[in-house]
Amino acid sequence: MTTVAIVGAGPAGLRAAAALVQAGLRPVLIDESPRVGGQIYRQPPPPLMRPPAALYGFEAGKASALFARFAALQGQIDHRPQSLVWQIEGRRLHLLQGDRADVLDVDALMLATGATDRVLPFPGWTLPGVYTLGAAQIALKAQATLIGPRVVFAGTGPLLYLVAWQYTQAGGQVQAVLDVAPPDAPRRALPGLLARPGVAAKGAYYLARLRLAGVPLHRGVRLQAAEGEGRVQRLRWQQQGREHATDCDAIGFGHGLRSETQLADLAGCDFDYDTLEQAWLPRRDKAGRSSVAGVYLAGDGAGILGADAAELAGERAALALLQDLGQSVDDSRARALERALQPQRRFREGLETLCPLPADWAAQADDALIVCRCEEVTAGELRACVRDTGTREMNRLKALTRIGMGRCQGRMCATAAARLLAQAAGCTLPEVGRLRGQPPIKPVPIAVLATAAAQATPVPPEERDD
């Protein structure tokens, strides 16, 4: 019997699972959350369930359709919620299911791991009351709560305005939306955004509704510092050389999204530097095949294109997987999915023009700025390491400073650290490389590691290095 595992039960993973079931397979669907949907369609626990329109806004119809499709197929899918894949060895997945360690040997693997917040820190970002945009959205969707009664949202990216609008809809008081992107970015981004006019119109709607709600919107901002005694009480910022301070009880900030690529790394996938996303992404062909036979990539975990593109890519990767297993697939359907993905990339290019990362962030970062909150590594320590050792590579920087060795394994600090390294060493972002994924990709109990060691496949004597 063929065992196919899908890691991630968001739009990409669910669409892929449906295609595999239709072809007669019973995929194993593994996800860390208790309920399917991913971040965009996150479902709260039953006592806090609200109508889809209240949870997902314009996307309520898509979310409901996705959940209905899953419900119809649930008996034909081996769904494993609250399960973490923390290590991959060849075709063996190491799982933590609740408090129980397990392994799963697979014939084919699809990684639909999604994305997390992309963070460029600023002074005071470690104060209580400062959250990422994604965390602010999770609090609202999953727990029906706000991160504070008076919130400032800051950074850049479409999530900035979406979450601010969601908070106003939920009755929150949004003190301001502070966008670090240049004021003329919308004009320059318009040609790319028109590749998906419906989505662009939704963005315009959020802006209009925020303005009607009286929320101050500012572009071309530089974040100065979050301040407060015991917890955040204000955010200082600068615009056109003038200093401002906005009182608040909480801050939600972020600079778009970054792909979750650690499992692709552990699976042995090759990576390439993507100039659009300014990040290293696992290599895949247009069908979703990775560089490793039997490993497939779909959704934001392989490149940020959004939920609609994730669904298309999930189905396309599933067709490639089926074809590689020797099943016949509908070639016309495969080509249609590839055509449908083309405008998604053009729209993504428009978004990057609309919401670019601050090009001078590293040069402006103060030496005292904490970059890695897990290990309390500052920008000054990173610069001193470059100056004293001449290092120009991310993993060497990690070994010398412990950047990226904490609980988040570099998810929060790698974007900033790479920029500081490149700026201090006088080289480019591609030249400094990327942090290599290390197991466990998220913290697990020591007992789980002991169980994994006992379950490890012995290396034949002829293959040992010693």
Textual characterization of the structure:
The protein is of the alpha/beta class and 466 residues long. The protein folds into three domains: 4-116 and 258-327, FAD/NAD(P)-binding domain, CATH 3.50.50.60; 119-255, FAD/NAD(P)-binding domain (3-Layer(bba) Sandwich); 361-432, BFD-like [2Fe-2S]-binding domain (Arc Repressor Mutant, subunit A). Helices cover 38% and strands 21% of the residues. The chain is built from 16 helices and 22 strands. It has helices spanning 11-22, 52-56, 60-73, 133-143, 158-169, 185-193, 197-212, 262-266, 307-324, 331-354, 361-364, 379-389, 394-401, 414-425, 429-432, 446-455, and strands spanning 4-7, 28-30, 78-80, 83-89, 92-97, 100-105, 108-111, 115-117, 130-132, 150-156, 173-179, 217-218, 221-227, 234-239, 242-247, 250-255, 257-259, 271-274, 279-282, 295-297, 370-372, 377-378. The strands form seven sheets. Strands 3-2-1-7-20 form a five-stranded parallel β-sheet, covered by helices on one side. A hairpin with a 2-residue loop joins strand 5 (92-97) and strand 6 (100-105). The longest helix has 24 residues, at 331-354. It is globular and about 65 Å long. It starts with a strand and ends in an 11-residue tail after the last helix. The model has no long low-confidence stretch (mean pLDDT 94).
- Count the E strands: 22
Query: Helical residue percent?
Result: 25-40%
What percent of residues are in strands?
15-25%
Write out the CATH superfamily name of the largest domain.
FAD/NAD(P)-binding domain
Q: Report the major sheet.
A: 5 strands, parallel
What number of domains? Answer: 3
State mean pLDDT (0 to 100 scale): 94
Q: Helical segment tally?
A: 16
